[in-house]
Amino acid sequence: MALLTLLAVATIAIVRQRSLFGVVILAGIYSFLMASLLIALDAVDVAMTEASVGAGISTVLLLATLHLVKATEMRPIHANWVPLLVALVVGGILVWGTISLPPFGVADTAVHQHVAPYYLSRSIPETGVPNVVTSVLADYRGYDTLGETTVIFTAGIGVMLLLRGMRRRDDNDRGDAA
Amino acid sequence: MSLDLILRIGTKLILPFILMFALYVQFHGDYGPGGGFQAGVIAAGMVILIAITFGMSAAKRVAPQAVVERMVPLGVLVFAGTGVVGLLLGKNFLDYSVLGHDPVHAREWGILLVELGVLITVSGTMTALFYAFVERGR
To answer: Which residues of A touch B115 (CB under 8 A)?
Structure first.
């Protein structure tokens, strides 16, 4: 509960903050709080990913982006009521959706009855890997993980082409002017 | 130059431990939390720490840009190639049981290879992105 309160405080601070440097640091804090929350829920693999990717690399890459752009957020030109309305409606629908969820941590819900027992009981005899998260990620659901890797590959190539291509055009412009 | 002596020595001291931790997370992923994604990010973090403390030229001596950029597609190829081996040997795509004599052992190998592919792509992409941002800023 304390972690959830801190998460809410961090979110409000991010929204109110005008300095983008502050926003990046607060987003890092948010990720660390999220990682602590995931550890409290015994999801260590996800917590580790959140801490390393969310708090680590994302913060570094966002700071690198701030290096390229201005570091203060401009005041909005017109009042943005439509995004606020969309956010409130979507948030309301999500909260409404959680009402019909089964109680937290109950063992006999649908999600724990389908493939989870199969994975838990067959992981060691079938793959010899004690960490079920790893065996599901890399073996039973290997196709999904291949897709994830391809997403990272595509995103990386895209950003690199974007940043490089822009520089080359700049160089050409400078050459023409001279 | 002399003021950041503590920073430089401190960074030098923890660098091998960061790499060690990345490899631990990678290869202990079968037994504890961790795997290719996390290990790749930690390894890339080590290179970024070198770049921040000692400058880009030092980072590029450790991880040359050409190598890093080739790692991005190489990892996907390792992953997909592991799947294609299963296909060529008469099983389904990404069926690892053909990789060894004993199917259980073979699947352990398959997981290891696939995680290696993830590690290569993730660490390569993160480092290459950081390089691209820093060079764009010049």
So the answer is: 134, 138
Beta-carbon contacts of residue B58 (< 8 Å; ≥ 6 apart): B50, B51
Task: State which residue of chain A sits closest to B113, comparing Cα positions.
Answer: A138
Please report, for the domain that includes residue A5, its CATH number: 1.20.120.1200
B121 touches chain A (CB under 8 A): yes
Q: Which of A142, A148, A156 sits opposite B129 (nearest CB)?
A: A156
Share in percent of chain A as helix, strand, coil (round to 5)? 80, 0, 20
Q: Is residue A40 part of a domain?
A: yes
CA distance A49 to A65: 22
Nearest residue of chain A to residue B118 (CA atoms): A149
Cα A124 to Cα B19: distance, rounded to the nearest angstrom: 29
* B86 near A CB under 8 A: no
Tens of pLDDT, residues A58-96: 998 888 888 888 777 777 777 778 888 999 999 999 999
Out of A48, A125, A142, name the one closest to residue B38 (CB).
A48
Instruction: Check residue A19 and report its DSSP letter.
Output: B
Domain presence at residue A152: no
Of B111, B130, B135, the CB nearest to A138: B111
pLDDT digits (tens, 9 = 90+) for A156-175: 999 888 887 765 555 555 54
Q: Which residue bears the tokens 């793959």?
A: A127
Please report the residues numbered 46 through 65 in chain B whose beta carbons come closer than 8 angstroms to any beta carbon of chain A: 48
Cβ neighbours around A173 below 10 Å, total: 10
ipTM over 0.85: no
Burial letters for B34-67: b for 16+ Cβ neighbours within 10 Å, e otherwise? bbbbbbbbbbbbbbbbbbbbbebeebbeebeeee
